[in-house]
Fold:
Amino acid sequence: MLGRELVPRLVDAGHRVRVLSRHAANVCEGAEAVAGDVRSSDGVRKATDGVDTVVFAATNPRRSVRKTEVGGTRNVLDAIAGSDAHLIYVSIVGVDRNRFPYYKAKWEAEQVLTSSSARWTIQRATQFHPLLDTFLGFPAFIRTPNLAFQVVDAGEVAARLVELVEAGPSGRAPDFGGPEVIGIRDIAAARRRITGRRARLVRVPRVGFISDFDDGYHHCPDNRSGHITWEEWLEATV
Structure:
């Protein structure tokens, strides 16, 4: 999702871009495709050979989470060892506080990066619009008393990443959040009103990592960097 937004922006900015993906899928004109997998390190050295900057945007929250995030980060660091390459890791707001296993893997990957000798930047962002739309398309999605999201446009986050590529190593960049924090019931209501698609919300107790979401650890209300709202994004999809 993020890579599709990022690659053409980098090309348009005049950068030479090489894309590592498992199937070397077609990429936009001006970019080069390399087949490989960060989890096994296949193709990683070839993809990173001679590059100035690596943007780690590979992720899979449903399976092989630690192998992708933690192992993948280590494999990329090994591949660029001895070079001056700058590694930008794309993370999620709140990974250092939320107990959700996917977030914990992202947090561990951040620590692997910050303890390395590499030149690095970490960019945390809130949830992308299509991701939340996918959640609401499930047979049911959770609802807790205070559950809300600060959804953000993937294209706007990609534009920030282009800035970070050009800025060079920046450490922990400011969090990148959407323009508004919206309760899950209001999110579902707007989706139904604009697209006609219903969502079934099921009340669940505040236990474990669910309470971390209810407490809003995945928000960054002081960093409303994006401009495209949930309703504006929905209207653009219909």
